[in-house]
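Exercise: predict the structure of this protein bound to zinc ion.
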Amino acid sequence: MDKRPERRRAAVKGRYAVAPARLAAALITVLAVTACSGGVDGTPGSSGTRDPLFPRLGNDGYDVQHYSLDLDYDPASGHLKGGATIVARAVKNLSSFDLDFAGMDVQEATVDSRPAAVNRAGDELTLRPHHELAEGQTFTAYVRYSGSPKTITDPDGSLEGWLKSPDGGVLALGEPTGSMAWFPSNNHPRDKATYDIKVTVPDGLQVVSNGELTGKVSNGGRTSFSWRTTQPMATYLATVAIGPYEIDDKGMTKSRIPIYTGVNPRVKKQTAAVVAQLPDMLAWEEQNFGPYPFSSTGVIVAPEKSSGYALETQNRPVLPLDHFDASTLVHELAHQWFGDSVTPATWRDMWLNEGFAQYTEWLWSEDHGGPSAQRLFDQEYAKDGGDEIWAFPPAQPPTAAEVSARPVYVRGAMVVHKLRQAVGEQKFHALLRDWVRVHRYGNASTADFTRFADEEAGRSLAASVWDTWLYGDGKPDSP
Ligand code: TRP
Ligand code: ZN
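Solution:
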């Protein structure tokens, strides 16, 4: 399903229920702690970070610094063998801690090389280390696992996780929850980390992932690809694309960032002209938003019907043929600043991603001979009060099913336009650049943004922008 507003089907879904598994996980954690005689003051990390839309995701109690994933995939059987080495820091004394992990069998877990007790309950994987972890302590958890990774249906009905295509290829995508289908993690955007992702596949297939390719080694009919991400990345932006991709690693942006693209040969003809525009798009976005935040860029062009949506996977977004055009590429590249470098503090802050990426499409149109942002705004405003773009305020998606619904994109972009009108051209452009510079590689909330914009404007924009456009119910009375 397309997450982009123009082509997206209506998302009408029930509430994201708190599964009984969560209760079970809590009970097991309690039992594990009671049974831990060595512990004095350590308490278990919780199995969730109380995200307003996805309360079960993520885990409090530790902060991941680095994931090192070693994956071995057999396309013929669909079997994955994995090893995840997770370097993290305890932020409180911990008797046990949770990782988010869906499906797969866990063979072994260690913490600092000593066996750890393992509990599975729903999507929570609880590890109880031999010794308690002290607040501030850095530790290394290792999980060895195998199985056929799941496809996860997210609350709005779209598919993510480990997506297999009929040609034996794979597209691993994770917004908002799907990365836990292929590696255990602290699966919340708040906990960003660096990554090494190594994937071994039969000779002849390519593996394209985030960051930079640091090694490619063939041995006994199989090839290992090693990818390294050295700037912090949220779990939902991790990707692996396996298939007969055609690679181009010769390009360079104007600012001398290496470009690595993987294009499925079946869709090369139809997409080549737009892929060739990527350096110009990035040069234009760097003019607007400041330096590109990462050490490499590119795009992964997948066949149609592989995911049903495009995604701003870090460094190189994924665009399947059925969601491929210049405007979508501009959108996904804008996310490298808005979402990937500056990541929402919670899933409720999604409009900070989608409103800005959508507005970037309007700016691109305005600067490249299409309708102006004002025209595009007016077209949206003309929609009657019952239209789905007015269904809820962009900063307040009511449930997890609405995290990618139209108000987040379209009304989100309208907020950005109202801000531009309120502060004027010069301040608006300075504000965009300052925002992504100040919060580079971090997280930010809606409240952070409104406070920041008020400061840059030199006055409160509550009455002119936030109260109506960002937080107000229904269609605002005047444009
Ligand atoms: N972020 C994607 C885009 O706009 C769309 C998307 C895919 C999405 N999965 C999602 C948005 C989950 C919110 C939540 O290109
Ligand atoms: Zn988007």
